[in-house]
Predict the 3D structure of the following.
Amino acid sequence: MSNISGHTIEILYTFSMITITDVREKIPLDVFDYQQLISCLTGYAKPRDRITTMLATGNLIRIRKGLYVFGDKYRRNPVNRVMLSNLIYGPSYVSLDYALSFYGLIPERVEDVTAVTTGQAKHFITPFGVFSYKSLSPNRYVTGVSMKEEDGMGFLIATAEKAIIDKVWTDKRFHPKRPEDFEEFLFDDLRVDEKGFSNLNSEQFRRITETFHSSKIEMLAQFTAGRLAGSA
């Protein structure tokens, strides 16, 4: 019978510590949650101490509580911030200024990732930039969301039509009285590209408008229909 005590076993285990390389081999994706991480450290009496060490060395990076990414040395792909936005707070999809820039509808490069959620509005400052979320009711949320893929990773983002509608709806500074008021707001204030705007899908725009039940969005739809008909 072995005379090795439990204390000795714990000491021996400590010397054969699970390394970041071991964790990397067990977790297939670059971004992962706390439960996936803790499942790799089941042999530790204090797994949180091991996680703290990995964070201190930069081998792991905490994005927010419960969400992590491997450090530069161990990442297999660049961090996709659109996909990251979906994971940081959900349910959510990227929209508003970031999506307008993504589609080339506005000239500015937008640094903060902007999104829409059915939950409360939130704002996160992370090692990978700022992520902000505006609230939208569930009936206005679903229609006009697209699944795209980059580097083998999928993410949810508004269609170009939905991004414009979400932007108009959430901008509380703008109170149009007639459809013609959108001319200045879209092309001067927001600096939406007129050629890009003329390529929007009128049927998609109509379907999204019907979910909002809003006179403001209805006026936007009327303005858009006139513009798209004129450019056809």
Notes: The CA atoms of residues 104 and 196 lie 7 Å apart. Residues 6-15 have pLDDT under 50 and may be disordered. DSSP finds twelve helices and nine strands in the chain.
